[in-house]
Amino acid sequence: MSLMRTLRAVSMTEGVSFLVLLLVAMPLKYVWHWPLAVKYVGWAHGVLFIALAALAFSALVRGCIPFKTALLLGLASLVPAGTFFMDRVLREHEARIGGDEA
């Protein structure tokens, strides 16, 4: 799997985990008093967030994405559903480099 394909997959997964954290785990904690949901979903989201940052940095260093795209991806990861909008940009960069960059 190419670096860009992995970056896109982790980006989408991180976006889903953020929405699950906000829309499922947080209500479970504060409405139904089940704090373990936030503990485990939050932990998974944190790991995915760090993986996204590492992959974005790696793609930046290897020249797969420009600095502006890496910065926008980092900012989009802080907004619920932001990574879904960045997928189009990442897909364009993947097509530009041919998707075969490792």
Question: How would you describe the overall organization of this protein?
Answer:
- This protein has helices spanning 3-30, 36-61, 67-76, 82-97.
- The protein is an all-alpha fold and 102 residues long.
- It has one domain.
- Helix 1 (3-30) runs antiparallel to helix 2.
- The termini are close together.
Compact overview of the structure:
By secondary structure, the chain is an all-alpha fold. The protein has helices at residues 3-30, 36-61, 67-76, 82-97. It is elongated and about 50 Å long.
Mean pLDDT: 93
Overall shape: elongated
Beta-strand fraction estimate: under 5%
Low-pLDDT stretches: none
List the helices and strands and how they pair.
Elements: H1 3-30, H2 36-61, H3 67-76, H4 82-97
Kindly list the characteristics that best describe this protein.
single chain, 102 residues, mainly alpha, 0% strand
